[in-house]
Batch of 2 targets.
Target 1
Amino acid sequence: MSRSTDLIHHAYQPPAEFEAPQVGVFKASTVIFPNVAAMRTREWMDKSAYTYGLHGTPTTFTLEERLATLEGGTHCLLTPSGLAAIAHVDFALLKTGDEVLIPDNAYAPNKSLAEGELAQFGITHQVYDALDVNDLAARITPRTRLVWLEAAGSVTMEFPDLVALVQLCKARGVLCALDNTWGAGLAFNAFDLMPEQGAQGQPSLGVDLTIHALTKYPSGGGDVLMGSIVTRSDELARVLKLSHMRLGTGVGANDAEAVLRSLPSLPLRYKAQDTAARTLAAWCASQPAFSQVLHPALPSSPGHAHWQQLCVTPQEPDGLAAGIFSAVMDERFTSQQVDAFCDALQLFKIGYSWGGPMSLVMPYNMASSRVRSVSHMQRGRVVRFCIGLENVIDLQNDIARALKVAHL
Ligand SMILES: *Cc1c(COP(=O)(O)O)cnc(C)c1O
């Protein structure tokens, strides 16, 4: 045999048993079958066997199983980003003539997808007020196939009455999907919203499926883009998996390994960032430059009681919340002044995303991005703070200094 062939078909095989704390990075497009019969009979739909790298390796199967456990589901699929997970759910479940309902405070690209590709495919959408269960009830029609939910809402952080919204969807026979990025599977269990019911032997109330931007807390590094879809329904899992195999949206093994490496510290990081965010949110609420601070654990924040209902538990008497909040700047400040404040921050960097080690800030103009009225909010520009893992006093000093520099 020549060298070139030897280097590929080498006789050495490492011993089969190898165990270490971290899962190996299995990189494969090709998966080798021992013989043709095995290739013909191998199962493509579940995790009983390997067929092709796109459809699963030990690395991705392990990550999927751990994420399903994290979120309280039984099936998980990985997608190349959180937004790809949203798109995957839409493409797998909606067809021409269907309608999807999206909360006004949803992650904005969810709405953009509905306005773009979904509209092109003859799928309509309506935007509902997440704080008004009656508004959702009035918008559900026989054409409604799917309702998106988000708790807390993006940027403005309203916490909806998730229990009532899910009960409504169940009563009307409409599928509901939760963007679970904020709760990260830790703040509440999306598949078991009323654990006390389950304790009395009643069936658990939960969403039909969740998507999660693993890009945020599960990655924790600000260096990976990935998403997941989790469900407890065997039937939904089958539909989503078939669609996943047809759309070809897999993830890279190195990225999956990076998320696997970060998962064990997820609860610690989530809690540390929560604690720091609450300290800073409370401090911001005491500063005259901010007319309102939006963080679901603050009693003045819209939907605070709903957050308490779901996220305060005997295990977490102070409740859990993501390390993210927004502040409404007093309306006498111009957008130039608000921009100058963001520019003056030194530790808070200007950038999208959250859940990583570095604190981030982003100014928003809510008037231009909302369809429905936001009467529960003070008027003025909104600044969102995403809290990283820096020392909280340093972060507070950074905000105080930037307020001075920008003369706010
Ligand atoms: C970031 C984010 C997404 C999208 O995740 P990407 O991986 O950046 O595509 C979806 N939903 C929410 C709530 C997010 O914050």
Note: The first helix runs from residue 3 to 8.
Target 2
Amino acid sequence: MTERRIYLDYAASTPVNARVLERMRDVALSNCANPSSTHAAGREAQDIIAAAAGQLGRLLNVDPDTVVWTSGATESDNLAIGGSARHRAHRGRHLVTMKTEHKAVTDMFEALVKEGFEVTWVEPDGNGLVSPEVFAAALRDDTQLASIMFVNNETGVIQDIEALGAICRERDVLFHVDGAQAVGKLPVDLGALPVDLLSLTGHKFYGPKGIGALYIANRPGCRVEPILFGGGQQRRIRPGTLPTDLVAGLGMAAEVAATRIEADLKHLRGLRKALWDGIRSVDGLTLNGDPDGFPGILNVSVEDVEGESLLLALEPVCVATGSACNSKSQEPSYVLRALGRSDLQAQSAIRFSVGRQTTMEEVEFAAARYRDAVARLRKLAPGAVA
Ligand SMILES: *Cc1c(COP(=O)(O)O)cnc(C)c1O
């Protein structure tokens, strides 16, 4: 029997939903206009984009006018953090974030340090959570922006966005949330949550790659300076010709998600439990993250085995070591190091991430493969991890 690929890397990217693809195809085939054009075809493209903003607005419970389209969460994070820090530099040059954020956030903050901003990196606890007390203690009178991710892409840990946002409101600090792993997967009600800026991306919730959005709350003081300059589209906040078909696809992904978040979560909980039950008997296993985290992600380290070898031994199961964005480097995951894991523990980490199409049979196969792979690698090189 030829082995079928088993894709357990939904945190890196998800398959495009059939209704999303259908919508994108319809739009791509029926409207070739530049949505910036004022003729009838251009106006139709604008209507398609407005409809997508409506769909995304309903998912997030916000006014569609608060949505700015971008190329993905990397750009949204850069625009939110760089754009608001620079806009409010007169208010203070102190910024707060965490070491466990995505590179699109941490590297933007590093860039701002070079521009003369000062960053406080809040320490997570051993599970990866930041407590409201620790967070509040990091804020100063000259703090103008804090950025904390909703669901961690490596561990699945869910931060208490409501509590952290409330502290920011009290202290008049802008609050940005990287919601790339949360939107479309957990209920995210921006009508109720004290969040000023939220980044998201289509391909993490069954939409297309290359399209994302930044929510910018309609509140006084909540403004961003552009990081791109050009034709003045999207009120100059993010110029550039909008890809009508991708925008329509993201809108449809939001509409589909809105109808099935609870059912998806139930499915994911069952899968994660089966996966964990299937591997928990392995000696020297450590769970990275929080048992109450997002059920689509299970990250585990194991003693005396090296992650890259484990990854190869797990084939045809596709999983991630550290995070997909870091797996080209041999450096242990900086996220797991920040949780206090040793280099060796971080190096052996495997992130399983499951989604809508994952079956029970697939996770059971993956668990068996994991048990066998660990046993095999230990036999090959007993106790020998360089
Ligand atoms: C995937 C991801 C990003 C980057 O999104 P792109 O669409 O690939 O730019 C940013 N933050 C988090 C938490 C992510 O998971």
Note: The pocket of pyridoxal-5'-phosphate is lined by residues 72-74, 77, 102, 104, 149, 153, 178, 180-181, 201, 204, 212 (CB under 6 Å).
